[in-house]
């Protein structure tokens, strides 16, 4: 029997170990792409209920942000901490993209919606592996340090509303990645860590598409519901995301991803 896409998503979400999760993410993405290339949906989207929280390995130990040791990026330990933090974000992103597929599999959506998030989930699996490889190359590994405990909060906050999910996850959180990644690349460039520079440049270039998928499907759903996208975005972010957005913004990459300044600037201020 062919496993539906939604069941594949749940398989990834219920796999705990990082490399095993990313291997399954990549294999399922390849199966979906091959099926779609045949011109008909050999693999159905199907429906499935994702877990409230995805399975995660025993390590890293999850800690509140204030208890995660401060990083000094000028030191080798600081650079390991930075790679570790990005690996943690990427593993969470693998789960976020499979979660959107399973959680909203009962919504009537075009196949392109599922194609985009499968592609993003494949990218995130590659990104986790790149970061895990960089950690291994300097004698560390994912799980060696404590990591941020609050990563699944955005998924929980938006589990009942696809437009809120798109507004908060790709259009706020992944867009934030576009703002901060160039500074990170600079840290590794100054240290002569060329493998990490190359890996982070791959991540940086591929993340633009994830933000673009978010704004594309957000605008699509606004059109379907006859909503004005900008006020709808502001309203959903204010209700489902805690705290204001923080400049500086990567205006150019955000524009590439379909996010104009009048979407995010008003969210830097309290109302
Ligand atoms: Fe990523
Ligand atoms: Fe991403």
Throw out a few tags for this protein.
single chain, 63% helix, Ferritin, two-stranded parallel sheet, mainly alpha, binds fe (ii) ion, 10 helices, 271 residues, globular, 1% strand
Question: What is the topological layout?
Answer:
Blueprint: H1 5-13, H2 18-37, E1 62-63, H3 76-103, H4 111-137, E2 147-148, H5 153-157, H6 162-190, H7 194-225, H8 229-240, H9 251-256, H10 261-264
Helix pairs in contact: 1-2, 1-3, 2-4, 3-4, 3-6, 4-7, 6-7, 6-8
One fe (ii) ion (FE2) is lined by residues 93, 120, 124, 174, 207, 210.
Region (Disordered): 42-76
Pfam family, one: DUF455
InterPro entries: DUF455 (IPR007402), Ferritin-like_SF (IPR009078), UCP012318 (IPR011197)
* Strand line-up in the sheet with most strands: 1-2
Provide the β-strand percentage band.
Answer: under 5%
CATH-defined topology: Ferritin
Tell me the count of domains. Answer: 1
Can you summarize the main beta sheet?
A: 2 strands, parallel
User: CATH superfamily assignment?
Assistant: Ferritin, core subunit, four-helix bundle
What small ligands are held by the chains? Answer: fe (ii) ion
Strand tally? 2
Q: Segments where pLDDT lies below 50 for 5+ residues?
A: none
Task: Name the shape in a single word.
Answer: globular
Kindly name the structural category: mainly alpha
Question: Mean pLDDT, as a whole number?
Answer: 95
Question: Please, how many helices?
Answer: 10
CATH architecture: Up-down Bundle
Rg calculated over all Cα atoms: 18 Å
Q: Note the gap between the termini.
A: 53 Å
Helix coverage percent of residues? 55-70%
